[in-house]
Amino acid sequence: MLTRTKNQEDSVEILAVQKGKGSLLGSEMIELNGITKIYGKGDAEVYALDDVNCSIKEGEMISIMGPSGSGKSTLMNVLGCLDKPSIGSYTLGGVETTTLNDDKLAEIRNEKIGFVFQNYNLLPRMTALENIELPMLYNNIPRSERHRLALHALERVGLSDRAQHVPNELSGGQQQRVAIARALVLNPSIILADEPTGNLDSKSGEEIINIFEELNKKEGHTIIIVTHDSEIAAHTSRIIHIKDGKIDREEVFSK
């Protein structure tokens, strides 16, 4: 394991063999330069992020760790194009996102990013299959195709036999699998997972992280996980530690 401090290197670039594949990781999918997020004005200014510099390669699986209030959730929102930085440049797949309007940002989220949240965010009266079909409704995908793609997504997470179950008929781990299937259904390049195992027991949490590893190794998805759990973070190839809105240090692992 190699530990690097912020002072040693602002932007870590990894040239490592992609897990499960014989080729090198791809080019930079994400590049953050001088990212700063300020809330409030004057004496009330708060720097949620302060001059963050980082790059993430296509096909990486990384984690972001930090104490409460460190800025990791703000960083996740910027990475997910849910919020814009006050200062700095964020390039996603070669596109500078900080100059885009809300409609264009929504297009990027829809096409490139799948989100997985701690609380699953499933609609309680809809079946697992219907919850997975939701993102496709906004893309005007025909009903038969939505059904086919949703079933395939359920198969990918091992839940094809739970397609007609509503959330309260599923365990926490199963609900999170449905949420992952929903994130996958439009085949995004990037999956952003915010504390995806936070509400799960250790066995279910291990099953969820194994799914992320499969998606990374076999399908090449870029996976970014925000977590408090060092055991979950240890499954990733790199840990970015955030403290007081800055990258405090990075740990790079040979996988």
List keywords for this structure.
255 residues, seven-stranded mixed beta sheet, alpha/beta, four-stranded antiparallel beta sheet, Rossmann fold
CATH architecture: 3-Layer(aba) Sandwich
- Regions with little confidence, pLDDT below 50 for 5+ residues: 1-23
In CATH, the homologous superfamily goes by the name P-loop containing nucleotide triphosphate hydrolases
**Domain tally:** 1
Question: How would you describe this protein?
Answer:
The protein is an alpha/beta fold and 255 residues long. It has one domain (58-84, 101-252): Rossmann fold (3-Layer(aba) Sandwich), CATH 3.40.50. The protein is 31% helix and 27% strand. It contains seven helices and eleven strands. The chain has helices spanning 72-79, 102-112, 128-137, 143-156, 172-184, 202-219, 230-233; strands spanning 2-5, 28-39, 46-57, 61-65, 87-92, 95-96, 113-117, 190-194, 222-226, 238-243, 246-252. The strands form two sheets. The protein has a seven-stranded mixed beta sheet with strand order 1-11-10-4-9-8-7, with helices on both faces. α6 (202-219) links the parallel β8 (190-194) and β9 (222-226). The N and C termini lie close together (10 Å). Mean pLDDT is 89; it is low at 1-23.
